[in-house]
Amino acid sequence: MYDVAIIGGGPAGISAALTALHRNKSCVIISSAPEDSMLFKAELIDNYPGLPAITGADMLRSFIAHAKASGAEFLDGRATSVMPYGTSFGVAVGNDFVEAKALVLGIGASRAKGFPGEKEFIGYGVSYCATCDGMLYRNKKVAVVALSSDAEEEAEFLRSIGCEVEYFDSKRAKKFEITGESRVEHIVADGVSYPVSAVFIFRPSIAPDTLIPDLGLDGSKIVVDADMATNIPGVFAAGDCIGAPYQISKACGDGNVAGISASRYVEALAKPAEV
Ligand SMILES: Cc1cc2nc3c(=O)[nH]c(=O)nc-3n(C[C@H](O)[C@H](O)[C@H](O)COP(=O)(O)OP(=O)(O)OC[C@H]3O[C@@H](n4cnc5c(N)ncnc54)[C@H](O)[C@@H]3O)c2cc1C
User: Fold this and answer.
1) Half-sphere exposure of 234 (CA within 13 A, CB side)
2) Using CA positions, which residue lies closest to atom 11 of ligand 1?
3) Tens digit of pLDDT for each residue in 198-220?
4) Which structural domain, as residue segments, surrounds residue 155?
5) How many domains does the chain have?
6) Pocket around ligand 1 at a 6 A CB cut-off
7) What angle do CA 37, 38, 43 make, to 5 degrees?
8) Do residues 89 and 135 share a domain?
9) Does one domain contain both 97 and 211?
C-alpha cells in the first residue's frame, strides 16, 4: 500500500508528489497520457520563474523526470473509480488496482460534463474501461465515444475481442445522448439514434463526482479548504480542478500544500488514538 496516491500527472500532481516524497512518503502518480495535460498543449510558457521561454511539453517532461528521479512511481492510465475503505482508498485504473492511505486529486479542470443519460447508466452499459468491461459485450454492438488520445487503442481492443464498434470521434459527432429502459439501448449522436448494448466513453478525465461519489463540488470545481482538504477525510485536491486562476505556478503551489496535508494525514493515521 502506498502512503499517497496522486491522480493526475500535471503540475499540481507532480508538485504534490515531490512534496510528499520529501516527507518520506511513498507515492504513486496515476495519470492519463502527458499529452492530455493542459500544460502539454501550451506552446510557450514565459511566466514560470527560472524557466523562461519553454514549451509546455518540455516543461512537463522535465517535471516528470524530476518526479521519477525523486522516487515517484508512475502508473499510466485513467483512474475510473475510488473506493473508500475506512483508513485507506482503493483506486481502479483499468485492470490495475492501487491502494493508498491518502489521495491527492490533481485532475485538471473538469471538462467532462457528462452526456444526458451517462450517469444513470454507469454500470448498466456505460463504461470508461474497455479491458475491464469489454468481454461483457463480446459479439455485440457497442459505441466508442473518442475524446482522448487512447480511444483508438481501446476501440481496437474491443474489436479484437469480437465487439462490433460504432466509433465516434469529434469529427463524426459532437452531441450525444444515451437512452434505454433499465440499461443502455441506444446512443443518439447529433440527433441520429444507433442501437448499441454499451457505450464506452474515453475522455482524458472523469467527472470528479463520478470518480468519487459524494465529493463536494461547486459546479464543476472541487471544494477545498486552505489545506486543500476536500469534504472527504484523506482526500485532497489541487490545481485547475479546484478553480481559477488556471496557471502553472498556482497549480504547483496548491500541489505543495496538498502534498504537505496528505503527508500530515498519513502521519496522524500512524499515531495511536488519544483517549
Ligand atoms: C494552450 C494553453 C496555454 C497555457 N499557457 C499557460 C502559460 O503560459 N502559463 C501558465 O501559467 N499557465 C498556462 N496554461 C494553464 C496551465 O497549463 C494549467 O493551469 C496547468 O497545466 C494546470 O495544472 P494541473 O496539474 O492542475 O492540471 P493539468 O495540467 O490539466 O493535468 C491534469 C492531468 O491529470 C490527468 N487526469 C485527469 N483525470 C484523470 C484520471 N481520472 N485518471 C488519470 N489521470 C487523469 C489529465 O489527463 C492530465 O494529464 C495554459 C493552458 C493551455 C491549455
Assistant:
1) 22
2) 247
3) 999 988 778 898 899 899 999 88
4) 126-202
5) 2
6) 7-13, 30-32, 36-39, 41-42, 45, 47, 78-79, 106-108, 204-206, 211, 239-240, 246-249, 251
7) 115
8) no
9) yes
